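Late entry, written up from scratch paper. The run itself happened at the end of the previous shift, but nothing got recorded in the book at the time, so transcribing now.
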Amino acid sequence: MSLYDEASLIAYPSGYKESKIYAQKPIDGTGDLTFTRASSATRVNSDGLIETASIIGSELIVNGDFASGTGWSLVGDFAISGGKASITSASQYSQLTSQGTNFLTSGNQYKLQVDIETLSISGAFAYRFTGGAVTPILTSQIVDGKFEAIFTMPSDGYLWFQTTGSYTGLNVSIDNVSVKEVITSNVPRIDYSNGCGSLLLEPQRTNLVTQSKDFGTWDNTTYPITVSTNAIASPSGFVDATLLTPNSGNSRHAIRETVSCSATTYTLSAFYKKDNAQYIQLSDGGDSAWHIVTADLDNGTITNEINATGTIEPYANDWYRITCTFTRTNANTIQAFIGASPTDSNSGLPSFNDTSLTTYAYGAQLEQGSYPTSYIPTSGTTVTRIKDTSSTTGLSSVIGQTEGTLFVEMASLSNLVTSNYLSISDGSYNNRLSILFSTGTNVIRAFLRLGGSVQCDLDTTAYDITQMNKIAFKYKANDFALWVNGTEVDIDSSGSTFSGSTLTTFAFNEIGTGTGALNGKCQNLMIFPSALTDEQLTDLTGAVQTSFNSLALSLGYTIL
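Output as recorded:
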């Protein structure tokens, strides 16, 4: 029998749906994890691009192929023939309206898809929805005869197509209209930032910058700079990044956004891509002293930190995300600056008059906290991403009671955290076993509590917890061990375990308190109903088990 055959629960980030993450074992669904996050959130997809995690729902529109023409209201030159809706040589305002009930809900996102035969369109053909703006459909947006867009309903209503502007001579035919709801709340995020899919679990955070990518709304006159929006493809893959060009005749150049703040710790971040400037600056100039991070876009390094700590992380297509974490002395306003630098270090806003020092920028974020979280897009107001939680119960038949092994491959969002847990328990605080990133720097810990009494407490500080570590906690009466990356790092030879069917529940938090949720990434989760041998633990946590995807393939599962 192989090691993986002995596992009673196997869950790796692959199959999921709204509010659920599928376990690969047991196959009857008892090991599936429930998932909640009452908001949308972004992830890095398998192509390395930032996108909103979503699931496309069922089709909502009726008669989208115009087979019978019922359910649509025609105005002007629109006519239905041969299963298509067409305008031939429009001579007046024309409108085609979907079924006249409010089947689209205010605030929800929807995906529109339609086949378009274009003989003459010239920007005079558009779609719109109740309460929304008219959005022209251009010939350049039609790929292989197909057009699609994602929109948010401003009010309850429905969809229609219409002529707009100069419609004289418009000749267009549409078919196969499809409208599907885009579900973003409670959708698990399988994130590929590390190259391999991992379940991303984050705390609640708010982006305090109200315009995260429309830098044309930022102050660009105090320190003159030309802002050219939609200049290049951003880390999202869409052409919505900004080119920043210093103006002549001034010694300092940057765009600035002012945000109210408290006297606490914040993390400012933005994405940069090199144009001509090798060095860039990200800073807060609104405190009693500057908080500055300077980065080198040629070498992907942080070159200078003033009253702040910085990170730099590569993204697809030569983009970098730069962060600047600082603690405010004064509760007043943060003045966030984004711009280029002539040198690799700065003590304030850099002074230069070189208009060639251009750089691309995208995705500004200011959040309260000591480390950055995933990008939260904003477009006019602050936006809050609710925390991720995941758990499952009814597992008494797959959890070892008197003995067992809990294995996880995971990474923390920060190497300095307040306890982040994953736990097996009876649903209470007093009977549980946990693996956690404990309070302190790079602390990996495991403990077992029986009837409120701690039976073992194991730990190590020898590993960088922001990297993926393979961690196993073996428990058996008078035989406890913590293994990390192929090495036994701590043991305890005295203590009791559970009896009967005490253990029933797994959760990515501290069971019984509702706190201590894991803030990190999980690439692999397994439960064994027996205490594995040293040889098995070496194989499980060492280099032999290279990744969850390779494990999946070895078990014959399909990776989604």
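DSSP finds two helices and 45 strands in the chain.
(Scratch paper discarded after transcription.)
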